[in-house]
Amino acid sequence: MSGEKLVGIVLVSHSAEVAASVAELARGLSGAGTSVPVASAGGTEGGGLGTSSELIAAAAASVDRGAGVAVLTDLGSSVLTVKALLAEGDELPVGTRLVDAPFVEGAVAAVVTASTGADLDAVEAAATEAYSYRKV
Q: What is the pLDDT of residues 84-120, one digit of tens each?
């Protein structure tokens, strides 16, 4: 599938460790299919807790393969930071979309779906559907 346009996934957390761990989990659970470009953007440039528009923009650029970029966030200000970047219009790759989904389950669903070569709408739908996953 070399050269295939794939949806990229960016995971934004207030913690670099959380973002990296969720990215590792999602990649691991996606199986042996196509390697989806996944990047984590956690914490601040100095390694503290928080969000960084620069780290988010760099992560989005790093996973852009021409099919769009799905951005999943953990908590309030990470959502606000991504919304601000989208409003600026030139900080994120064309086709970048903030996806309203649970962070862990949504990330796994997004990566698994993107690994099939699905488009951005299908990746978003799969991630959003994770809200309905019941555990009991």
A: 999 998 999 999 999 999 999 999 999 999 999 999 9
The β-bridge partners of 72 are 11
Single-letter amino acid, residue 109:
A
Phi, psi dihedral angles at 31 (to 5 degrees): 85, -160
Tell me how far apart the 2 most distant CA atoms of the chain are, in Å: 43
Q: What are the structure tokens assigned to 136, written together?
A: 């009991």
Determine the Cα angle at 81 with ends 19 and 52, to 5°.
55
Nearest CA to 122 out of 68, 59, 63 is that of 68
- Cβ neighbours for 61, distance < 8 A, ≥ 6 positions apart: 92, 93
Interior/surface letters 19-45, b for 16+ CB within 10 angstroms, e for the rest: bbbbbeebbeebeeeeebbbbbbbbee
Q: Of 70, 63, 65, which Cα lies nearest the Cα of 123?
A: 70
